[in-house]
Amino acid sequence: MLTAQPSAAALRTTPLPEGTDQAAPTPELAPTAHAAHRFTLYAWHGHVYASNVRDKLIDLGRLDQDGDTWSYALDGDACPAGSGFASAGQALAEVARCLTFLYLDGQFTAQRDQSGMPGPGLAEAPQAVVTLDPRGQAAPVIGVRD
């Protein structure tokens, strides 16, 4: 009889912490089942925006220029406010270093899409692309364009 279940031969048992169900088999590719997620951060009209792979755009907080330096203050408590950056791109890179997948996932769930609001020019704005591991086991991969 054919079933949709994988055969026992295709599964291996991984040692589990004491007190867990030892009968639960783990697929060999389970460590790769949680692919990294890519987000783009933008410095645009005094704000830090983020977009995801579905092109949803959300506002994460303020990005201000005071003379020759830049500072940011994000909504929520994901990152402490930062200041003294020489460019918007450097400020975005610091934001990208302190963001977590859980924070961004929560913001994308809670906020409405603003992709129609910023207007033309967003593509030319300073950007930082960050790839985050949802399990938090890998450091963010960051690329910046000032």
Layout of secondary structure:
Layout: E1 11-12, E2 26-27, E3 37-44, E4 47-51, E5 57-66, E6 69-74, E7 82-85, H1 88-98, H2 101-110, E8 127-132, E9 141-145
Antiparallel strand pairs: 1-2, 3-4, 3-8, 4-5, 5-6, 6-7, 8-9
Main sheet specs:
7 strands, antiparallel
Shape: globular
- Class based on secondary structure composition and strand pairing: alpha+beta
Total DSSP helices:
2
Strand percentage:
25-35%
C-alpha end-to-end distance: 60 Å
- Main sheet strand line-up: 7-6-5-4-3-8-9
Describe this structure in words.
With 146 residues, the chain is α+β, with helices and mostly antiparallel strands. Helices cover 14% and strands 33% of the residues. It has 2 helices and 9 strands; from the N terminus they run E-E-E-E-E-E-E-H-H-E-E. A 7-stranded antiparallel β-sheet has the order 7-6-5-4-3-8-9, covered by helices on one side.
List key phrases describing it:
single chain, alpha+beta, 14% helix
Structure described in brief:
The chain is built from two helices and nine strands, in the order βββββββααββ. The chain has helices at 88-98, 101-110, and strands spanning 11-12, 26-27, 37-44, 47-51, 57-66, 69-74, 82-85, 127-132, 141-145.
